[in-house]
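Researcher: Let's walk through a ligand-bound prediction step by step. First, I give you the protein sequence. Second, the SMILES string for S-adenosylmethionine. Third, you return the three-dimensional complex as structure tokens. Ready?
Model: Ready.
Researcher: Here are steps one and two:
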Amino acid sequence: MSSAQLYDTIGATYTVTRRTEPRIAAQVWAALGDARTVLNVGAGTGSYEPNDREVTAVEPSAVMRAQRPAGTAPCVAAVAESLPFEDQSFDAAMAFATVHHWRDPIAGLLEMRRVARRVVVFTHDTSETGWLRRFWLTRDYVPELADLLIGRPSLTKLAGAIAARLEPVLIPWDCADGFFEAYWRRPEAYLDENVRRGVSVWTRVGPGAEQRAVGSLRDDLVSGRWAERNRDLVDLEAADLGLRLLIA
Ligand SMILES: C[S@@+](CC[C@H](N)C(=O)[O-])C[C@H]1O[C@@H](n2cnc3c(N)ncnc32)[C@H](O)[C@@H]1O
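Model: Step three, the predicted complex:
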């Protein structure tokens, strides 16, 4: 199944939990600098699109395009790997939480580089130390995630492809956007089906792994094992779980 097809299947309830987190948006918009025209690739329902600039969106899934609120930026049905725009047509191109879905992430980044003078990409460090072991949910409950990363380019390789620098993105404890890592200090949230349906990871690891992970998290919350293992998190206001901006 292509990623666009995936979102045509799982995307209908996306906006129940997924929306712009203002503190992360401020970091993305600062990275866009003084860009007036901005291309948003893998735009989904329009989260993180700055409303004080001229935005054009690209989104392959019809289900996601249909949920864009009235009045948001015009949206073109296309994929990152083949952007239907002339060279250097935009001041900046941004991509938020989408690169890991692209069939060929490097090709997509090079396309962004071709059509825009500045590139800003929000993604995650998929290395063992950067992500898998850093976040208790992947480390202790969903080890299957490692299998999904086989053959995917590393963060270093992605950054190298467009000569990007990396900027850490801290996740506030009360993050408004329900992406996978968002509830790192609110573990009960992962027991909620609505929360899980807003994140493709659960569909991709499959119902067996999902049910096992949720069951074992529920047990650990009841027994106090989660709290014991993660007592260093309770006083943190924000956490570095390997989320990064690539800025080129
Ligand atoms: C997790 S959603 C993120 C949407 C939005 N950027 C946000 O932050 O809410 C990932 C999006 O990437 C889109 N996508 C999948 N494959 C793509 C590709 N090859 N090129 C561009 N977008 C793609 C999906 O259809 C989906 O809308």
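Researcher: And what stands out?
Model: The chain has a mean pLDDT of 95. Residues 3-4, 7, 18, 41-45, 47-48, 59-61, 64, 79-81, 96-98, 101-103 surround S-adenosylmethionine (CB under 6 Å).
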